[in-house]
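Re: the multi-chain job from yesterday

Posting the exact lines I submitted so nobody has to dig through the queue logs.
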Amino acid sequence: MNRTALLALTCMTFAGCSDRTEPGMTEPLRLRGAQFVPGALPGLEAAAGASSAPSTPTPGPRVTAIDLRSIVVYQGQGNTKLAGRVDQKSSSVGLTIAKLSEGYWVLPAGYPDPASENELTWDASAEFDLSIPAGYHDLKLVAFDADGNTGTQFTQRFCVASRVPDGLNACDPSLTPPRAVISLSWDTNVDLDLEIITPKGRVVTPKAPSTLPPGPDGVIPPGAGVIDRDSNAGCSIDGIRYENLVFQTAKPSGRYGVYVDLFDSCQKPATRFVASVYVAKRQKDGTERLEKLDERSGILVASQASGGTGRGLFLFEVQF
Amino acid sequence: MVRKPDAPPVQNMMNSPHQRHLITLACWLCAGTAAAQTPAPATAPADDDVVVDAAAAPAATAAAPAPASAGASQVVTPSAATAAAASDTTAVASQAPAPPAPKAEKADVPPVELSGYVQLQYENHQDSVDQLRQGGTAYNQDRFLVKRARVEISRRYNYAGYFVELDGNTSSGPAFGLHRAEGSLFTSPGTSKAPPLAELTLGLQKLPFGAEAPESAKNRWFMERSTVSRAMFPSEVDVGARFSGGWKFLRYALGAFNGEPKGSKANAFQLQDPNANKDIVARFGAAAEASDSLSLAFGVSTLIGKGFSAGADATKSAVAWRDSNADGVVDPGELSGNPAAASTAAQTFERWALGADLQLSLKTGLGATRLFGEFTVANNLDRGIYVADPILTGADVRELGWVAGLTHELFNTYVVGLRYDHYDPNADFFDKRGGKLFPTAQAIDTLALLGGIAIKDRARIVFEYDIVKDHLARTSAGIPTDLANNSWTLRLQVLL
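And the result, structure tokens for all chains:
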């Protein structure tokens, strides 16, 4: 009797452990209020290439339109509205990013749109994970009818722009990237600042963001490097956690000292950071692309918060 | 009423100053109703949550023989009523055996009773993930947990008593605080099987609705109450006044409460009261032993009250940026002014519940079997799971739930049980799909399977597996379906 009871207990234990719910929180694309379903997106593959709806109508339910607002989204961009329409045979729509996602999201179809022959609308608030590689990707969609049957997939190409400002070069290589970028990123919502010491000894921080002093008219001279933002300034959390010194038009020269300053830990115990240096390099096809020259990482703990007094932690020097 | 031949003389009891004092109190309370009471030693109140340890029980009877107290300073004016009550009180006291009184206590003062228990457990939930929800709460629920560590302190004089219960747990981080604090006046101390004819209780106390809510977590075999009970009464306690008691097999309880029980998610006023209205809660029923082996209890309950919809604060004017083209840059037309908004006045709404409960206990050579069931229908009363606010939704929320279960204690050592409960938080719920509204069930059904081993009056270790069927996920077609969120719990309970 004891063995039987033990066996039953073991079975129930494993039943509870197996087949866990997967809410899709580690997915590159996340939709609020939608159901995540692990596995490949059902439906017939659409023809590869540009944005497409099936050229010939198929008997199954169809996705008829998608509204991305912009085909360019940034790594880590949140609260992005995705909307579209499906035909009247549809009950729901599934979405995924091809080759990156391990499942797809399901949204029930909504109200009919009288301006589009009463096709059913759908919309969702989307988040694009910071880990999505910069460049073009395929957003794949498929419509389901009430019995779960699918038609042909709908493909929408979109571009994920890098958080390292490259002038959208990852989306359009014909665009010229900056000459050089010194980038700092970190993983916790603290007020961390990038500090650069120029060859002439000028200290560049988000509070004094230019490598060259402003002219008499207050305008930063062309060719100067400029820090693009003060992320999480004063613990006013923006969640971006990137600061970049961008040399947009002129390549810097000389030795630049790279420092990182924990201005305020914002009640977090520690943060991990990565400092990287990128320079523009010409490719075989004649275009230019930012390539990583150097990278250092480290950890700062709350007790190292400076409050802006003194120099930050020295990381390395870069010779341009 | 039978008086034992060795009962102490009436005069002895009459000379007790405490007795005389309380007799006067009793007359004020209910004009001599004490005369009809069944004698009982001073033990636990009628509430099931107050269970006197076996070791403490003999001491509780020490109040029975009351030697004369010559030093009494209270003066009671004799009257016919007090004389009658005094005579009967003496008889009440004489029913108890006469063990030697503790040396440290005055013989006519019942001792302070101390009891308690700890419930320590490991939980495993199928829907646990190593992530945080928006806002910071953890998805993961697979954990060791101090569910309850409770200390109960009580004292039952002949006509008054108090009960205090302190609770510590780690459910949402370490917490320790007041769980119950009751003061009572009653016609006789009563027992769990024979409550006093009348008892008035004020303070933080259990709500007398149904059978599940008033039941002590210490006595309940299943880990937690059913879903419907936890939805209506997020915890069992609220602050208020209750008038309760019993006569022969009849039981009654009628109370007025703030209507914001501990743990309520309806607003930010748990155990307070944002509206002047008090919730009226009542249960009328019976409890009888048909034979030595069979006992039966049933009742009907009702709750009538008003909920509170908080409205909204006034806002200041502000500038908002809406990144319409998602380029991360403030473009013309993307800035808009949000003018200051007036506050929204709070409103109250009607809520009610009706319930019926039944319990059947059978003792055989194989142990004790208990069959129980409870049915509840309510309006706008969910305060714990799908919080009902008809002011916000524009329509009343109709709730329905029931629970049925069976436990069997084999040879007072092993226990097995199963319980099935059903809770529909909104009978009028519609799901929007394809531009149409579909009547859709939001019901949660739970089958709890239980097995355990007990050391009587000392400890128990219990395993429970909960199979939960709900409608929290969606199929590929967008149709609500069951979310995989079964769970199991292994709990050790040890009494103080």
